[in-house]
Design goal:
By secondary structure, this protein is mostly helical. Helix 1 runs antiparallel to helix 2.
Length: 64
């Protein structure tokens, strides 16, 4: 399994976890940060990692 594919998979998992936090933890109160904001941050980071993995896969195929 190449590193681009791993980045896509891990980014997808992070994106899904962020979506679940954003969507379903609106009622939960935590002392430092709200879980909905954490979910939004995880969704952004997961999306960026998916894009990076796709880019890395495309570049790796064009180089070889």
């Amino acid at each position: 399994m190449n590193s681009g594919f791993k980045a896509v998979i891990m980014g997808g998992i992070t994106l899904v976890i962020g979506f679940v936090l954003w969507r379903f933890t609106g009622d939960v109160e935590t002392p430092v940060i709200t879980l909905t904001k954490l979910g939004m941050v995880l969704m952004v980071l997961g999306g960026l990692e998916v894009l990076y993995g796709l880019f890395k896969s495309v570049v790796a195929k064009s180089v070889t």
